[in-house]
Amino acid sequence: MNFIRRRRASRTVALVMTLVAVAISGCHDASGRPGAHTPEVTRPDQVTDLATLYAQNCGACHGRNGQSGAAIALNNPTYLAIAGVDNIERITAAGVPNTTMPAFAQSHGGMLTDQQVAALVHGMVQNWGRSDARASQTAPPYTASGQGNAAAGQQAFGVFCASCHGADGNGAKLQNGSVTGSLLDSSYLALVTDQGLRSMILAGQIDGSPHNWHSYGPRPMTDAEITNIVAWLASHRVATPGQPYATRQ
Question: Long-range CB contacts (< 8 A, 24+ apart) of 40-48?
């Protein structure tokens, strides 16, 4: 009897060990469980490479490669040099109130960590910046150093901007047949801040025929001239952009 009992017990132990081994093997091979050679997926808050961060957060507005988007080109060495890392980090983190530029830092309600914001901005500067971006001239400051004068701005606009945008700022037909849009459009002015206007004058465009603050006219523009032009453009803002609407009869 004892022999039979020991034999049965031995079989029971063997069966239990087999079931345990199968269970462990099944856990390792379970669907969704990473295998030994499966790379780990990086957590969203640990992504720090420029390509991924830019594509997920910036490309829709600023263009696929930092240009040709609805918003100002970020793949513009002149803009990166004049704005500087601190300003671009601040804008990226906190956004720009009353515009379509949102805040991206978690501390301001966004999704990115401070480390990711820094990685994004430094990545743009390292990949798209140039040490000679300000040319041989000393660029005007990123932000205006004083109040603008709209009347003086209209005169400066005639010197530096009218050849492309028309004497009245409502656009013009160029020699190549293309037509520039109006800078005084009420909807446009409602969407862009004074700093946005200043940034675009400073950095210019990089699509087509590149130009910026030192290549618009007969000489480089001064801080006061840019500030005055912005003041003149801003003076055309209206309280109800896009109106009046058609009246129903």
Answer: 44/111, 45/112, 45/113, 45/116, 47/116, 48/115, 48/116, 48/119
105: left (phi over 0), alpha (psi -120 to 50) or beta: beta
Q: How confident is the model at residue 132 (pLDDT cuts 50, 70, 90)?
A: confident
Please state whether 93 falls in left (phi above 0), alpha (psi between -120 and 50) or beta.
alpha
Instruction: Determine the average pLDDT of the residues in 80-87.
Output: 95
Six token digits for residue 117:
């914001």
- The residue with tokens 């961060």 is 53
Give the integer Cα–Cα distance in Å for 48 and 120: 7
Residues 6+ apart with CB under 8 A from 131: none
Please, which residues bridge with residue 112 across strands? 105
Which amino acid, 54? Y
Query: CATH no. for residue 160?
Result: 1.10.760.10
Helix (H, G, I), strand (E, B) or coil at 205: strand
Q: What confidence tier does 41 reach under pLDDT thresholds 50, 70, 90? A: confident
- Note down the domain range covering 71: 46-131
